[in-house]
Write a structure and sequence with these properties.
elongated; Serine Threonine Protein Phosphatase 5, Tetratricopeptide repeat; mainly alpha; 281 residues
Length: 281
């Protein structure tokens, strides 16, 4: 009996974190965030590790540490940090969304879908549109486009100026072979984010070629080839151009476009950017 009491007391002591340690941990999270924004990934990781040790019951240090590990390319360590964060805050949407993004990146579709579904249950999360959009993307990657559609539509309804949401809706509609709806979604991306619309212009051009709008599709694809030479965007654009009859093909003649390559990828677009409140953007 005495042994059990001793064990119980030790557990209570281990689980107790003083206000001083909590404050020091929060300060180190802020410092780690500053290092991260400055591009000092090693400094961020070291500082965020210290923050996590000071307050092992807090999810923010582990969430931020995981994102720093991703920036370094240490995906296994990032996964472990996200799982620690989920153990202390199993219903925290920010952690679930970020972990789902990593799981999707590493090909664990079923786990990613579950993480996004759990994230949607956190009604206090301030940007649920991002989760809806990420879940739609995960579902369409899993070959479940019809299931993805309501989530993609809800993302655009909640955040009508969110370009990633419109792009994901376009991918969903394209997977459902609804060409007109897909083209409309991609058009929204081009109008809302013209400097970040290379992916949508690529998908638009490929889709136009598929549905017989050869001239429009060729023009869009040639623009992609010129704008982003030597990139996967240009490679995919050329592949779509190669499906045209030879009489309809023409080498690009214009000079380079002023638009930089898009943050939106083509058919392999990653889910919406990690948004850690503890790190900023």
């Amino acid at each position: 009996m005495r042994a059990l009491l001793v064990i119980g007391m030790l557990a209570l002591v281990a689980g107790c974190v003083s206000p001083t340690r909590i404050a020091r941990s929060a300060a180190k999270v802020d410092l780690g965030a500053a290092y991260y924004r400055e591009g000092n990934t090693e400094g961020a990781i070291t500082t965020l590790r210290d923050a996590a040790k000071l307050d092992p019951r807090a999810w923010r240090p582990q969430n931020a540490l995981a994102i720093a590990y991703i920036a370094k390319g240490e995906l296994d360590l990032a996964d472990e940090a996200f799982r620690r964060a989920r153990r202390v805050a199993p219903g925290e949407a920010e952690v679930l969304n970020n972990h789902g993004t990593l799981l999707l990146k590493t090909g664990r579709l079923d786990e990613a879908i579950l993480a996004f579904e759990l994230a949607l249950q956190d009604l206090d999360y301030r940007t649920p549109a991002m989760i809806h959009s990420n879940l739609a993307y995960a579902l369409v990657q899993a070959g479940r486009a019809d299931e993805a559609l309501p989530y993609a539509r809800e993302a655009t309804r909640r955040a009508p100026t969110m370009c990633e949401a419109w792009f994901h809706l376009g991918l969903v509609q394209e997977a459902r072979t609804d060409a007109l709806a897909a083209l409309e979604a991609y058009r929204q991306v081009s109008e809302l984010c013209p400097a970040d619309s290379l992916g949508s212009r690529l998908r638009t051009g490929c889709l136009q070629v598929q549905v017989g709008l050869a001239d429009e599709g060729r023009a869009a694809l040639e623009d992609v080839v010129i704008t982003a030479p030597g990139t996967p965007f240009a490679d995919e654009a050329r592949a779509c151009l190669d499906t045209l009859p030879s009489s309809l093909r023409a080498p690009p003649t214009r000079g380079p476009s002023s638009l930089a390559p898009s943050a939106l990828a083509p058919s392999t677009l990653a889910p919406s950017t990690l948004v850690p409140s503890s790190l900023g953007r």
